[in-house]
C-alpha cells in the first residue's frame, strides 16, 4: 500500500520521504573536478610537479583567507589546473578535520558543481550516500565554492557538492 | 664533475640522463579520466549507485576476458560513465596486486590517455614520479587501454598512462 502511494504522482510532493524525493529530483551538474588535497604547504610544490610531469597549465588559484603567524605564504585553498581537457584542483590541507584525507586515507575526492546543492545532496543521500560535512556558506566554505556540502558514497569516495565560486574569489595565475 | 656533464647541452642527446629528457619531451595527452576501483564484483552495484545518486550515464563497459569458476558474471574491467561532462571509469578489482587500492589504500586513481606512453612515463619519472607497473600490452593490460604503465607521484596518487583502447574491445551499454 505504501508503495502505491509513493508511485502516485499526486501525493509525491506532499509526502516528501527520502526515496520519494530520489525519484523526483532532477539535478543538473555543470562540472566534475577531481581534487587532490596535499599536506600543507605542499600544494605549490605539487602544482609545479604536475606542470613538469604532465604539462598541466594553471588556470588560477584561490588563496586561504587567513594566514597563521608561522606561515610564510598563505595556503592554497584551491588551484585550478588544466590537463588533457579536464580541470583538476590542488589544495593545501588547511584544516585536518575538513579533508577527505582524514576520513579515507586518501587525498583524492571529487567536486561536483550544481546550482542546487541541497537537492543534489538529498538525492545522493537517498541513493545511499552519507553526509560527512553539512552545507556551509561563505568565503571559508572551501575551494572557491560559495556553498558546499560533502557526502561519502558506499565505496568510500568523498563527493563535495557545491555551487560555482563567485568570480571575485579567484586569483588569476 | 658528473653534474657538469649532465647539464652540458652538447652531451644531452648522447648521455640521455633523466633530467635532460624531462626538458626535451613534448607529450600530448588526449583525455584524463578518474578511475574508481571497487572490490569485485561490486562494480555493477557501484554503477547503479552513481546513476541513482548523480544521474551518471553509462557509455559502455569492457568485461574481463577471463571468468573464474566461482563467478556468476564476468567482472567489469572498466565501465565508462558520463557525469557533468566528464568521463569516469568504474572497475572491479580483479587482481589485488594490480590496483591503486593496494598501494594507496584508495580506490581512486587517474587515467591519462596518450599515443606516446613510453615518453609520457619517462617524463613523469624525470619529474619525480616512481614506476609502480611497467608498460604492458594486449587485451589483459586493463581498463580498455591497449598499452598502459603506472606511476605514483610524490603525493601518493597513482596515474595510469595508456594509449586509447581499440574500439572492438568496448561493449556498448
UniProtKB/TrEMBL annotation, chains A, B:
<dbReference type="InterPro" id="IPR029068">
    <property type="entry name" value="Glyas_Bleomycin-R_OHBP_Dase"/>
</dbReference>
<dbReference type="InterPro" id="IPR054575">
    <property type="entry name" value="At5g48480-like_C"/>
</dbReference>
<protein>
    <recommendedName>
        <fullName>VOC domain-containing protein</fullName>
    </recommendedName>
</protein>
<dbReference type="InterPro" id="IPR037523">
    <property type="entry name" value="VOC_core"/>
</dbReference>
<dbReference type="Pfam" id="PF22650">
    <property type="entry name" value="At5g48480-like_C"/>
</dbReference>
<feature type="domain" description="VOC">
    <location>
        <begin position="32"/>
        <end position="164"/>
    </location>
</feature>
<dbReference type="InterPro" id="IPR054576">
    <property type="entry name" value="At5g48480-like_N"/>
</dbReference>
<dbReference type="Pfam" id="PF22656">
    <property type="entry name" value="At5g48480-like_N"/>
</dbReference>
